[in-house]
Amino acid sequence: MNMISPRFGENMPRRQQSLSHYRPDFDMDMVQRLLGRRRRRHMTRTTGKRLTTYRRPVLDRLRPRVTWKVYDITACTGDSIALQNGGNTARLGSRKMAASLKGADKLVCFVATIGAGIDKMIEAFGAKGSIADAYVIDALASGAIENTAQRFQDDFIHRLSRRSYVAGLRFSPGYCDWSIGEQNTLFSLLDCENIGVSLSDTALMNPRKSISAVFGLYDPKRAPRNLDYNPCSRCGKGDCIARRSSGTAATPAKQHHNEQ
Ligand code: SF4
C-alpha cells in the first residue's frame, strides 16, 4: 500500500514535491455529517443506500495529489506573516492566523486535490437532474479531499517529530479573517500546475475539490505553551461555519472543500 510519504532528505524538506501515489480514502465522519447525521439524528435510509451505491465509483475516480513547500517565517506582526521567498518577501494577512503562528519558525504551504474526474461526475449527475445523487457524490468528494489533506499533514508532522519540530493548526484562505484573495499569494509560492490545480479570476480552485492551506512549524524549545491555541475559543462569532472545536488541528467541514 502506498501512503503519502514525503521523501525527506537529511534536512527539512524545502523543495516542492508532488505526491501522486497513495491509497485514496474518505473521512467518513465528515461525509456523514455533510449528509445530515447529527448527535441524535441518523441519515435517512435512502441517503444511506446512495452512499453505499456511490462509494466505490467515487473511490475509483479519485486522483489525490499534494504539492507543498516550506518557507522561513521572517516576521509575525499583529496582522500578518512575512515569509522569505528567495530575495523577496511574501506577506499573508490574517490577525488570527498571526496570533496562532507567534513563535513559529517555518510555514508549510500546501495544495491538495483529488483531481478533476470527480467534478465531472458531480456535473453529469446534476445535468441529468439527479440532484440527490449529485449531493451524495459531492459529500463523498469533500470527505476524500479532507482525507488527503489531513493525511498529508499528519504524515508530515509524524516525520517532523524525529527532526525536532512541532506543528500548529491548519489555516486556509477564505476562512476566518484570511481573505480568499490571498489564494493568489499562496499559489505564487507553489507550483500547482504540476498537480493540475489552477485558480479562477475569483480565486476559486479548479478542480473544485481541492484544499489550499498552511500550518506552522515550531522549535519545541521555543514553542509557545499554547501551541494548539485555537482562536475560535475566544471568538464571539456564534454563527461562524468555520468554527473549530477546541484542540483540533483540522479545519471544519465547510473549510475542506472549495465552495464559498
Ligand atoms: S469562530 Fe470563525 S471567525 Fe471566529 S476565530 Fe474561529 S474561524 Fe475565525
Summarize the entry for a quick read.
By secondary structure, the chain is α+β, with helices and mostly antiparallel strands.
Could you give the distance between the termini?
A: 35 Å
CATH fold name: NADH Oxidase
Query: Residue ranges: pLDDT <50 for 5 or more in a row?
Result: 1-11, 247-260
What string gives the helices and strands in order? EHHEEEHEHHEHEEE
Helix residue percentage = 25-40%
- Radius of gyration, in Å, reads 18 Å
Number of domains: 1
Silhouette: globular
Record field, number of beta strands: 9
Continuous helix count: 6
- What is the makeup of the main sheet? 7 strands, antiparallel
β-sheet strand percentage: 15-25%
Structural class: alpha+beta
> What is the CATH-assigned architecture?
3-Layer(aba) Sandwich
Question: What would the keywords be for this entry?
Answer:
NADH Oxidase; disordered N terminus; seven-stranded antiparallel sheet; disordered C terminus; binds iron/sulfur cluster; 260 residues; 6 helices; alpha+beta; two-stranded antiparallel sheet
How do the helices and strands line up, and which of them pair or pack?
Blueprint: E1 17-19, H1 28-34, H2 45-61, E2 65-76, E3 80-85, E4 88-93, H3 95-100, E5 106-113, H4 117-127, H5 131-160, E6 166-171, H6 183-188, E7 198-199, E8 205-206, E9 210-218
Antiparallel strand pairs: 1-2, 2-3, 2-5, 3-4, 5-9, 6-9, 7-8
Helix pairs in contact: 1-5, 2-5, 4-5
The protein binds iron/sulfur cluster (SF4).
Iron/sulfur cluster binds next to loops.
